Amino acid sequence: MKNHTAIVLAAGKGTRMKxxxxxxxxxxxxxxxxxxxxxLLKVLGMGRILVVVGHGSAEVRARxxxxxxxxxxxxxxxxxxxxxxxxxxxxxGCKGDVLILSGDVPLLSAPTVKGLFKIFNKEGPARALxxxxxxxxxxxxxxxxxxxxxxxxxxxxxxxxxxxAEKAVKEINTGCYLADARFLxxxxxKIGSSNAQAEYYLPDLIPLALKAGSKVSALTLADPxxxxxxxxxxxxxxxxxxxxxxxxxxxxxxxxxIIDPLRTVISADVKIGRDTIIxxxxxxxxxxxxxGCTIEQGAIITASKIGDGxxxxxxxxxxxxxxxxxxxxxxxxxxxxEVKLSDEVRIGNFVEIKxxxxxxxxxxxxxxxxxxxxxxxxxxxxxxxxxxNYDGVNxxxxxxxxxxxxxxxxxxxxxxxxxxxxxxxxxxxVTRDVPPGALVTSRGSEKVIKGWVKKKFxx
Length: 459
Ligand code: UD1
Ligand code: CA
Known about the structure:
UDP N-Acetylglucosamine Acyltransferase, domain 1; elongated; single chain; 10 helices; binds uridine-diphosphate-N-acetylglucosamine; 31% strand; 3 domains; binds calcium ion; 19% helix; Spore Coat Polysaccharide Biosynthesis Protein SpsA, Chain A; 37 strands; alpha/beta; 7-stranded mixed sheet
């Protein structure tokens, strides 16, 4: 596929989305729909990828930065034929064939595109154009494939141009084409705009190819799921459901248990090891989860790495964290960015951690805030412990060395260090460094006044 070039059409406004955001950036299974198309082209090993942008061009370019794409500007959106015309300059020198896809058809699969190449090559040396069609129960909105009495393809009738008989046709154009580069260069300018929408329709290449004496063939799909085009938010949700099903099916086949696939959202870039169990209402994106983990109900995990055998308990949030093996997080824990937890760490309910490292086996079981801290192995953080890392201007580091015991309801005023094996008594405000092995307390002495209530209130 190295010789071939792909053009992805993504300049349209997507009026039917009723959105301020360009259509192709709306997300399907956690990623912009166009990114699914780009990933497909990468999997296929396309030599070059041209993306035609126009509406919301800057946003689309920014979101697709780093994917080795050549962007082509279509300043006025005059139709799909005009969009391809805008890409012709960038296409110069293309030795292979030109695959044309829409940025709003995100479910297309690699085997299907390979099938399109196959039927195209069967057309022989005079080949000009092939496309993918599909039979759809409700073809409303799509271009219909018009064939003659012998079944030979004649043209595409767009929804707005089709007569009643044409509207009854259930074979639709999916908007995926493969064209010979020279044929395209010679004919793209010949497309006219005398139609119901006064637009330059790319499917008008079909009659032009026939006129030039070439055959046009279609790869007709029995299962139209993967070629659904997204034009509104109802279709967006339907495509999301199909994409999720595809991702989850692959995970289940690879040995991951997904208890309720209808209530699980995992994006295509997630890797999960075998024997991991995913409970309902879990969301995971951009992450790698190890083997034998349990991710319980309502957990949200983004851009993180989780080691083998770790449990993430219900309703915990993990944001770009690194967690070791056999750890336990939550329920109701919040790990903000730059958190590194070693093996066997235990984090309990209502614990918030930010920019901190915790050593092996360290425990913070209840109601704590640990920020900008460096905590060693085997440390016990009592309930309600708070690292006071911020003085209103700057952030400071708290160091808690190996084997330290922090009693409940303590505050550590950073910068401060608690030395190896030291004890911090409950309710202490630690303001100075504590030497290793020491005990520090700052509680006032306790007073008990007998009979005080009766004396005060007379009862
Ligand atoms: C198009 C096809 C239709 C097919 C359907 C499949 C045409 C005229 N019709 O219709 O036969 O059944 O796709 O999904 O091609 N775009 C541009 N510049 C433009 C116009 C569109 O880049 O000036 C891009 C859009 O961003 C979109 C793609 O081309 O990604 C398709 O455009 P859209 O308006 O959605 O075409 P459909 O009406 O769906
Ligand atoms: Ca469309």
